[in-house]
Design a protein that fits this description.
By secondary structure, the chain is of the alpha+beta class. It has one domain. It is 18% helix and 11% strand. The protein contains 2 helices and 4 strands; from the N terminus they run E-E-H-H-E-E. The chain has a two-stranded antiparallel ribbon. Strand 1 and strand 2 form a beta hairpin. The relative contact order is 0.18.
Length: 111
């Protein structure tokens, strides 16, 4: 649901870093349990706004690049999405529920 080691907060909605895993000085900052209730959408220093629902809804390379760029700026990794250096999503869901290669991304066939 969230990038590696982040915690989902339904009231925001989004993901927060309660362990201090962000590896970027400009990334998201560690959130204390006592701060969770006060976190609001748009607080880019505390909230990672993308979830696995956004990844599944991505329709283009640009959609996925935006998510990966946010991972990079937040200083987080995301298993199967962003390893800290490379976009790891060679396939996108199609309207019929199958998977297809992302146009313009060299990857093994999704068929």
């Amino acid at each position: 649901m969230c990038p590696d080691y982040l915690t989902y907060v339904s009231s925001a909605p989004g993901c927060v870093d309660m362990l201090g895993v962000s590896r970027s000085s400009s990334g998201i900052t560690k959130t204390k349990q006592s701060e969770v209730a006060s976190i609001r959408k748009g607080n880019m220093q505390k909230l990672f706004e993308y979830t696995s629902e956004d990844v599944a809804a991505a329709k283009t390379v640009e959609d996925l690049k935006q998510i990966c760029d946010r991972c990079r700026s937040a200083g987080v990794t995301w298993e199967g999405v962003w390893d800290g250096q490379t976009l790891n999503l060679p396939c996108i869901p199609t309207a019929d529920g199958a998977k297809a290669n992302i146009p313009g991304v060299a990857a093994p066939s999704c068929s």
